[in-house]
């Protein structure tokens, strides 16, 4: 016990200190490293009116959009340009959701389930439904596809069909909310009758004006001195004109890995080795698709629609002969004439489809098609048979008729019959959709059509050429570590210095480079004057230096100096010229004081800010219709756009323009305002909202 007591007495204070340190450490650990810690990296990519968008949700939305986009792409891939477009669209959707939902809640706008169902299954489907359920064969809305979804959704064990329907319902709901809101705002647009009458009165007469003009150019710019304080004061007085968004400026040098003469010779050698096989092969389609960048098109192109270099020479090739190689962008190409014939550039046909895609056996479908064909040949009404038997909803309302061209996206068998068979021909044609009873009704504008095979090889830089470009870029980046040496070396070496100005945080493309997201991100992490490492962008290597940083807010004097200096100098000139006029009692006195002639301007109208021989002078136009001066007095000196003016109205006279009905004028004005609302309403609401975009830190 005595030992224990001694330990208690001797180490009590130490134990208390250790416990206190442990508690404090625990608290600090939570503060610095916990979920709400001070130093935990934020995962918020943006914020709108206090509503945050987490990077995980943003990525999920982007992925969902990409999946939908892949289904629309021929090869199922999404390139970087499309991916950036998706990022912007998803971000704008988030902005719209947050900004508009506040408006909907304030006004009590909603969309009921019954509305949504009616817009999907009703007689007047929503445009989103029409777009989603368009028959790919006909290009027309197919209501039977919607009915099939309704019938089969309960049997879908995967749940994918239900998810797709929910997406459509959500899209329709958002669209309807927007439509209701915009419609409500448009109903509030009102142009008062008294205002329309006043506008008519203002525009009912024109003025003949005597004036003297002292141009600002009479005073040399070199005689007007301005200070930075004066420029800053002007900016502060006109902040709305000098709002700026965050941006960067980068100067850069590009070391391009351009193909050398040896690289071109290698591509020519490849074509030479393939030319003999191209000349003799029986499978031209397979040969071209295996060996060429340009894939084989098994169709005819009108001679007038041929869009290739050396088109006239290629168009006149005999069948079976080869021309080339010739240069097309960065490729060397051989062209072989496969066939030529005369064909129309447009055809009108009508058809009846007996579909085999709804479970009807092929043999029965074929017999039914033959029976319908026999009935038509026996004198039956084609349109009546379309209405009774055709499985193509896209052409039922037109009697089965289509106008098609070689570019119309119809199946090959259908198009071949339409263009190859003569006018009046009726027959049964089988396609992937079933059996078509087709009649060629008319063919127009017959001319030469060509089938050409193109064998192309890109002229790419070799590894040796590419290595030389990279070595030059690396040497440049290694020897220049600040803006001063960067610029000096460029001058000594004779390199081409380029400028990428106004780079925004989420920019992905730089003019002259292309996709350059890494360079933009570097610009936002670097300090002014920093020189980058080597960036690789396709066939070029880039080294940049950060030359400018612009923060969001009001522009600084240095950023807008030329523009502001011109305005401040103009104001100083105006003050001098007005003092020189010395409060003239009349226009003649003004002319004497200024040593300027009295000139005349006719047909000055209140609604037009332009005056013949003077240009854009709205203040002068306004003064011409100042009732306090009328025709009795000369005006005070007017600080105009191009100079200082003193005017006197000699007379007013009717314009002679026909007077429009007030109701028509009001209606036209209101319709014009309503038309602008569709484009401008959301932008106005966006400016009134608090928006923070942090995406540049994540992408």
Write structural notes for this entry.
46% of the residues lie in helices and 22% in strands. It has 22 helices and 23 strands. It has 699 residues and is α+β, with helices and mostly antiparallel strands. The strands form seven sheets. Strands 6, 7, 8, 9, 10 and 11 form a six-stranded antiparallel sheet that branches. A four-stranded antiparallel sheet has the order 18-3-22-21. The chain has five domains: 1-40; 113-187, no CATH class; 205-241 and 558-654, no CATH class; 247-258 and 462-551, Chitinase A, domain 3, CATH 3.10.50; 259-460, Chitinase A, domain 3, CATH 3.10.50.40. The radius of gyration is 38 Å and the shape is extended. Mean pLDDT is 88; it is low at 1-8 and 30-40. Helix 2 (55-72) packs across helix 3.
Quick take:
The chain is of the alpha+beta class. The protein has 22 helices and 23 strands.
Task: Tell me the layout of helices and strands.
Elements: H1 2-33, E1 44-48, E2 51-54, H2 55-72, H3 80-107, H4 113-121, H5 127-132, H6 143-152, H7 160-187, H8 193-202, E3 205-215, H9 228-237, E4 243-244, E5 247-256, H10 261-280, H11 284-291, E6 301-302, H12 311-315, E7 322-328, E8 331-355, H13 362-377, H14 382-389, E9 401-404, H15 412-420, E10 426-431, E11 434-458, H16 463-479, H17 483-493, E12 498-503, E13 509-510, E14 514-515, H18 517-525, E15 535-537, E16 540-550, E17 553-554, H19 557-581, H20 587-594, E18 599-605, E19 610-611, E20 615-616, H21 618-624, E21 638-639, E22 643-654, H22 662-687, E23 691-693
Antiparallel strand pairs: 1-2, 1-23, 3-18, 3-22, 4-17, 5-12, 5-16, 6-11, 7-8, 8-9, 8-11, 10-11, 13-14, 15-16, 19-20, 21-22
Helix pairs in contact: 2-3, 3-7, 9-19
């Amino acid at each position: 016990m005595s030992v224990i007591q001694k330990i208690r007495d001797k180490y009590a204070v130490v134990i208390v200190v250790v416990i206190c340190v442990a508690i404090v450490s625990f608290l600090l650990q939570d503060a610095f490293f916990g979920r709400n810690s001070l130093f935990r990296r934020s995962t918020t990519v943006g914020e709108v009116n206090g509503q945050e968008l987490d990077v995980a949700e943003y990525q999920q939305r982007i992925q969902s959009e990409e999946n939908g986009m892949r289904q629309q792409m021929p090869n199922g891939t999404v390139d970087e340009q499309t991916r950036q477009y998706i990022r912007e669209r998803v971000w704008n959707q988030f902005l719209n959701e947050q900004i508009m939902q506040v408006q909907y809640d304030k006004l009590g706008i909603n969309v009921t389930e019954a509305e949504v169902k009616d817009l999907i299954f009703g007689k007047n489907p929503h445009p989103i439904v029409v777009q989603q359920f368009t028959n790919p064969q006909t290009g027309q809305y197919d209501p039977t596809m919607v009915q099939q979804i309704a019938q089969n959704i309960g049997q879908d064990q995967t749940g994918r069909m239900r998810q797709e329907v929910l997406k459509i319902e959500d899209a329709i709901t958002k669209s309807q909310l927007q439509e209701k809101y915009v419609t409500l705002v448009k109903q509030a647009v009102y142009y008062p009758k008294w205002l329309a009458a006043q506008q008519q009165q203002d525009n009912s007469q024109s003025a003949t004006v005597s004036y003297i003009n002292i141009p600002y150019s009479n005073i040399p710019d070199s005689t007007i001195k301005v200070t930075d304080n004066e420029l800053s004061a002007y900016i502060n007085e006109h902040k709305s004109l000098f709002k700026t968004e965050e941006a960067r400026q980068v100067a850069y040098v590009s070391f391009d890995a351009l193909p050398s003469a040896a690289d071109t010779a290698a591509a020519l050698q490849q074509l030479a080795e393939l030319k003999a096989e191209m000349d003799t092969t029986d499978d031209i389609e397979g040969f071209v698709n295996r060996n060429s960048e340009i894939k084989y098109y098994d169709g005819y192109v009108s001679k007038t629609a041929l869009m290739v270099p050396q088109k006239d020479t290629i168009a006149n090739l005999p069948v079976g002969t080869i021309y080339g190689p010739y240069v097309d962008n960065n490729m060397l190409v051989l062209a072989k004439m496969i066939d030529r014939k005369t064909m129309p550039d447009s055809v009108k046909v009508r058809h009846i489809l007996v579909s085999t895609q709804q479970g009807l056996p092929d043999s029965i479908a074929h017999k039914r098609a033959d029976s319908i064909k026999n009935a038509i040949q026996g004198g039956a009404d084609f349109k009546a048979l379309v209405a009774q038997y055709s499985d193509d909803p896209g052409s039922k309302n037109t009697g089965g008729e289509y106008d098609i061209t070689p570019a119309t996206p119809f199946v090959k068998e259908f198009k071949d019959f339409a263009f190859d068979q003569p006018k009046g021909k009726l027959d049964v044609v089988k396609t992937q959709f079933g059996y078509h009873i087709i009649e060629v009704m008319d063919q127009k504008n017959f001319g030469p059509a060509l089938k050409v095979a193109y064998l192309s090889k890109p002229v790419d830089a070799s590894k040796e050429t590419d290595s030389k470009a990279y070595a030059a870029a690396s040497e440049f980046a290694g020897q220049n570590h600040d803006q001063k040496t960067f610029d000096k070396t460029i001058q000594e070496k004779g390199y081409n210095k380029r400028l990428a100005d106004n780079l925004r945080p989420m920019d992905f493309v730089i003019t002259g480079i292309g996709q350059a997201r890494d360079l933009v991100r570097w610009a936002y992490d670097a300090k002014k004057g920093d020189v980058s490492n080597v960036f690789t962008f396709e066939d070029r290597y880039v080294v940049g230096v950060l030359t400018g940083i612009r923060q969001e807010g009001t522009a600084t004097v240095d950023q807008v100096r030329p523009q502001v200096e011109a305005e401040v100098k103009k104001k100083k000139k105006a003050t001098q010229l007005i003092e020189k006029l010395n409060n003239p009692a009349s226009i003649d006195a003004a002319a004497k004081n200024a040593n300027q002639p009295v000139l005349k301007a006719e047909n000055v109208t209140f609604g037009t800010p332009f005056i013949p021989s003077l240009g854009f002078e709205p203040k002068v136009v306004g003064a011409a219709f100042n009732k306090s001066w009328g025709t009795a007095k000369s005006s005070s000196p007017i600080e105009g756009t191009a100079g200082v003016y003193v005017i006197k109205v000699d007379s007013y006279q009717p314009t002679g323009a026909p007077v429009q009905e007030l109701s028509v004028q009001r209606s036209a004005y209101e319709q014009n305002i309503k038309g602008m609302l569709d484009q401008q309403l959301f932008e106005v609401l966006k400016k009134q909202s608090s928006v923070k975009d942090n995406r540049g830190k994540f992408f």
